[in-house]
């Protein structure tokens, strides 16, 4: 067990999350310990929580902070970096907040809370093919984990993402795990964009199966990383997503393939396929195209052709993930070939999923194009 969290608390958190998740017997994923999709669906556990049911004006700086009344929320950052020798590194850090009981705890204790926090840190060393990752859990009490709006900060133990005083940007990210440290400065090269309908991102047919969702699609990034004891100056670009809700997914939606793409002509693409239990792609799948001037528009499912061209089997033998794709957006003249920087970027912790850096090349209106990105693949564990 990690030295930063006592064993009894780890066991308590595991039991709380296990009891809270729908289908916690593993039936929704064929035995996956904790289901990412299960954590974000379930009409039966939504009672008592507010639901996201339509567009609503966002309020900043308040909405940079936590929304503890909702069942789930996350601050998600990924990036592609290079050192002075051109070696590539990808990174991910995500802070998740879960409300495990719509009723606030009644007992008098500094540790009493209905908020459970989880964070994932990962680093892809593309040159060596090594993938480092760690998961942490904590309760949202006594300063162990939490988020504040102004000054902005989100943290779990010593993993932190902080704003600059009263300003949200630039951000500073600091985190460390065995053999790896990350210390980065991120600053927005483009304004924030709202996903879906003015930040209302509907994933299911019922109004409550939705989330509030906004993104910073191009963050200029510089700083340092340490890998296997070697400190390296790095620079590149990052992407930040913010999302919260109560039950974004329908129970028939068993997973998703999500992509963030940064092209070298300053266009960005977010797109996801929601997969259903019968193997079909859900009609609620969608994305966003961001132009070089920061303007954006929604991409509907029928505008984007996304096909997996190669797969990889987890060494645990119970999951087969796509790791290369062809993406075409005919109406925009975009034709992209995308592939994992290294195939094994599976996070094998309490929540199993694949999240990794991808390389991109292709054409944009007849011009050759390259790019960087990230893919997140859930619901593949058999």
UniProtKB/TrEMBL annotation:
**What is the name listed in the Swiss-Prot or TrEMBL entry for this protein?**
Secreted hydrolase
Q: Origin organism of this chain?
A: Natronocella acetinitrilica
Keyword vocabulary terms for this entry: Hydrolase
A Pfam family found in this protein is: CrtC
Q: Which superkingdom does the taxonomy of this entry point to?
A: Bacteria
Q: Cite the GO molecular-function annotations of the record.
A: hydrolase activity
Segments forming domain AttH: 73-246
Q: Does the keyword Cytoplasm apply?
A: no
């Amino acid at each position: 067990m990690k030295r930063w969290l006592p064993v009894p608390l780890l066991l308590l958190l595991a039991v709380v999350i296990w009891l809270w998740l729908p289908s916690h017997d593993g039936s929704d994923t064929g035995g996956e310990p904790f289901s990412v999709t299960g954590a974000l669906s379930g009409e039966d556990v939504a009672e008592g929580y507010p639901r996201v049911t339509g567009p609503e004006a966002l309020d900043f700086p308040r909405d940079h902070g936590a929304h503890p009344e909702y069942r789930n929320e996350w601050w998600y950052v990924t990036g592609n970096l290079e050192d002075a020798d051109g070696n590539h590194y990808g990174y991910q850090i995500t802070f998740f907040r879960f409300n495990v009981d719509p009723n606030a705890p009644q007992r008098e204790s500094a540790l009493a809370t209905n908020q459970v926090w989880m964070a994932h840190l990962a680093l892809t060393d593309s040159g060596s093919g090594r993938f480092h990752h760690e998961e942490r859990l904590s309760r949202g009490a006594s300063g162990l984990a939490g988020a504040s709006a102004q000054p902005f900060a989100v943290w779990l133990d010593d993993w932190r993402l902080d704003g600059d005083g009263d300003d949200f940007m630039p951000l500073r990210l600091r985190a460390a795990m065995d053999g790896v440290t990350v210390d980065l400065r991120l600053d927005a090269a483009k304004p924030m964009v709202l996903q879906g309908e003015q930040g209302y991102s509907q994933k299911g047919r019922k109004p409550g199966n939705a989330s509030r969702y906004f993104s910073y699609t191009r963050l200029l990034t510089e700083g340092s990383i340490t890998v296997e004891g070697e400190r390296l100056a790095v620079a590149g670009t990052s992407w930040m997503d913010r999302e919260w809700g109560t039950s974004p997914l329908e129970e028939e939606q068993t997973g998703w393939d999500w992509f963030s793409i940064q092209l070298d002509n300053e266009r960005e693409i977010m797109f996801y396929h929601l997969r259903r239990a019968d193997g079909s792609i859900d009609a609620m799948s969608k994305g966003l195209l961001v132009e070089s001037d920061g303007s954006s528009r929604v991409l509907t499912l029928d505008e984007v052709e996304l096909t997996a061209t190669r797969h990889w089997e987890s060494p645990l033998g119970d999951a087969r993930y796509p790791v290369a794709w062809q993406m075409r957006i005919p109406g925009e003249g975009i034709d992209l070939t995308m592939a994992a920087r290294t195939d094994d970027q599976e996070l094998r912790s309490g929540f199993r999923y694949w999240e990794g850096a991808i390389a991109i090349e292709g054409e944009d209106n007849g011009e050759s194009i390259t790019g960087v990105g990230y893919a997140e693949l859930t619901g593949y564990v058999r």
